[in-house]
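Researcher: I'm preparing a figure for a lab meeting and need a structural model of a single chain. I don't have an experimental structure, so a prediction will have to do for now. The sequence is pasted below. Please return the structure as tokens so I can convert it later.
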Amino acid sequence: MLRPGSGNAESVPLLRTLPASHSLEANVRHLGRDEILFESGDFKTSLYRVEAGALCIYRTRPDGTMEIVEHALAGDLVGMGFLERHATSARAAINSTVRALPLDAAEKLTESDAHNKARLDAAMEREFIYRRESLASSASKQPAIRLAAFLTAVSQRSREEGGDPAFIDDSVNCAIIADFLSLTIDELALALKQLEICGMVEPAEPHGLRLKDLVGLKSVAEEALGPPAWLAPRDDLVAALQ
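Model: Understood. Here is the structure written out token by token.
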């Protein structure tokens, strides 16, 4: 059995050992076939060196299908990268043994190990790509997040003034709201439709918007990393809403 891309059976050994200077006290864990070592989204607590067997490193696509990233064999280090959470999952392809190593030992462990240094570089590049994809995906959700935060803020203001926190008067020109949220009219309409499909809002006769799920709206609004500056009530907009 060869490492992927090894070329021939004699060029790459299946069993690799770290130099004696890298000997570290660590826990050994035995994994049965298909047993999970870590999953995407888990906090990183250790690096792992495969002592025996093989691990399948994979990630789950948005549509639920699995994308195999690589297979880790004896001597390979896994769980490396710069993110605090794992971007991929790892499970045992066969009965395997892994050794947990200190999380901050990656540089030391790879400085004289060209094979695992290349794996570290590849892991860093993968995590950069995954992070960029995640940010791009989050950005595509921003209109709905911004609108949810806006509606939540207006609802709270209405509650404080003794009004109905679940009702938004539709007397304000949509262009004012779109401009405030830095959205186009089409983006605002799409965001409103997304919240409606999720069952959080609905049209209220004769003119207005009914907030059906204030808890859900608040949850969507808090998806952003910390409250954005535009979430704070602004006097000119509040005046326009009155």
